[in-house]
Each structure stands twice: as structure tokens, then as C-alpha cells.
Specification:
alpha/beta; 9 helices
């Protein structure tokens, strides 16, 4: 029996957030269902300047979080940039791969670090259950395999990833696999919502970890409620709240993307360990 070492990177900067709770719950379900040992360790990156030694873990999930993804001069920022490069370079030169999932704030940090496009502030804060559209590459993405097109996910962000540098992404072997909804009445570029950075690294601008309970808890925040009403209107807001538990919306997304990522990563790691024995 092998062992999987899972590191959870908390990017919330000491703010109360449902995301880490959901990520931990998904990770614990993964551990409880596994027929191998799973160690889970949490790191408070922004508030305590904690970062894992990438050599010591197999899988990393880096959370969303508040505030700007652009550098403000904190010590953790360079350490996080080095962490991203260490995993990327390790995977280029080693058979034992490291797997990384980047969510929202972490996704934006990676986009800035690898110079993939324009990560800028939105005109207004976005919050709600949004349709996510697959690109042509996204239709072949195995993490989306059991999701419809569009599928639905929680969107909670003040920043956006637009104007991707297609030439640089192609050079690095990265693929955009999802974008935000088409808004023909608004003359703004559609934001990038998910990227397959490499075979081992994946990221989403949306929150694949979110569940109805956490969503309802977030809606108690006046800013979130007002943002959702601004985006959808009061009628759509009430309808969304009423349909929060729909099995084909965020419940389905939560059951698919992160669990499939964890299972795929674990099987790859354990298979590689067996082949090296």
C-alpha cells in the first residue's frame, strides 16, 4: 500500500472563508474512500508565510482568497512564485510528478507569474452561480468529462483574467479550457475561467469546491448579495437561491472536478512508485 501526501495552501490571509472548509471536506472524503494512506497538511501562506517544501508532498491544492493578486511587497509572494517554478521545473525533469490545483486567487497569481495575460480589476465585483462555457480544448478535458456545456459554478472575484497571450501559452503547452458566459449586450472580452497549465497543473477562476451550504453562508455577506443582484437581477437571485440544491449545478461541479483531479493524481503517483520498485 502506498501513501499520498496532500498539501492544502490557505490563501485567505486570515479572512473567514467557506472555500478552505470545502477543500478540506473534499480532501477528507478522498482520504476516507482511498485504499491507500493519505496525509493532509494545511499551510497558511499569506498570513503566516507558511509554504510547503515541494519535495515533501505529492499533491497541492491552492485556494482562493481576497485582495489583489498583484505584488504588494510581502515575503510570501516571492516564496509562492518560487514554489510555482519549483513544481514546474521538477515536472519537466523528473518522472515522479507533482500535481497542483490552483483556485481563483491562486489561479490569478499563476497567470501573473507566468505572464499569460492581463489580470486586472473588474468594473464590479462578481458573485453568484455562473454558467461556465467549455472551449474546444475544454470539451476534451477529462476533469470536465461528466459536466454539461455550459456547467455551473460559484464565481466570486474582484479581478479577472482577460487578453491571454496565446503565443506564450502555446509555447508553454498551456490550454484555455473554459471561459465565462457570452454577453453580447456588453462589449467586454470574456474572462478566462480555467486553464490546463500542464498534465499535472490545472487551475480555475471559479470555485469548484463550493457547495450549497457554503454558498448560502456567503450570501449572508451584504457585498455578495448585492453583487449577485447586480449581475442577475432580483428575480434571478431569488431563483438561484431557490435552486441552490439542484443536482445538475454546483452540486454536480463539486462532485466532479476536484475529486477527479485528486483520484487521477493519486493513481498516477502510485503507479509511478510501483514501476520504480
Amino acid at each position: 500500500m502506498g501513501k499520498i501526501r496532500l498539501a492544502l495552501l490557505d490563501m485567505n490571509n486570515n479572512h473567514i472563508n467557506q472555500g478552505m472548509k470545502n477543500i478540506l471536506e473534499i480532501s477528507e472524503v478522498f482520504r476516507n474512500k482511498a485504499d491507500f494512506d493519505v496525509d493532509i497538511t494545511c499551510f497558511d501562506v499569506r498570513y503566516k508565510n507558511e509554504l510547503p517544501d515541494f519535495h515533501d508532498f505529492d499533491i497541492f491544492i491552492s485556494s482562493g482568497g481576497p485582495g489583489t493578486p498583484h505584488r504588494e511587497g510581502y515575503a510570501w509572494e516571492q516564496r509562492y512564485a518560487d514554489f510555482l517554478d519549483n513544481i514546474w521545473n521538477h515536472n519537466l525533469h523528473n518522472k515522479d510528478k507533482k500535481f497542483l490545483f490552483l483556485i481563483c486567487h491562486s489561479f490569478q497569481l499563476a497567470g501573473i507569474h507566468w505572464k499569460l495575460g492581463n489580470i486586472c480589476k473588474r468594473k464590479s465585483y462578481s458573485f453568484g452561480v455562473m454558467p461556465i462555457h467549455k472551449t474546444e480544448d475544454g470539451k476534451r478535458e477529462f476533469l470536465f468529462q461528466n459536466l454539461p456545456d455550459p456547467f455551473y459554478a460559484v464565481d466570486s472575484r474582484a479581478f479577472q483574467f482577460i487578453e491571454p497571450d496565446d503565443e506564450r501559452m502555446q509555447k508553454l503547452g498551456m490550454k484555455i479550457v473554459a471561459k465565462e458566459k457570452v454577453r453580447p449586450h456588453i462589449h467586454l472580452e470574456r474572462a478566462v475561467m480555467a486553464i490546463r497549465f500542464s498534465e499535472e497543473i490545472f487551475g480555475t477562476q471559479f470555485h469548484p469546491e463550493a457547495d450549497p451550504e457554503g454558498m448560502m453562508e456567503n450570501l449572508k455577506d451584504t457585498k455578495n448579495k448585492e453583487a449577485m443582484i447586480e449581475n442577475f437581477g432580483m428575480e434571478k437571485y431569488l431563483e438561484t437561491v431557490d435552486r441552490m440544491d439542484d443536482p445538475d449545478k454546483i452540486v454536480l461541479t463539486q462532485s466532479q472536478i476536484l475529486p477527479r483531479f485528486l483520484n487521477h493524481a493519486a493513481q498516477h503517483i502510485l503507479k509511478n512508485e510501483t514501476s520504480l520498485c
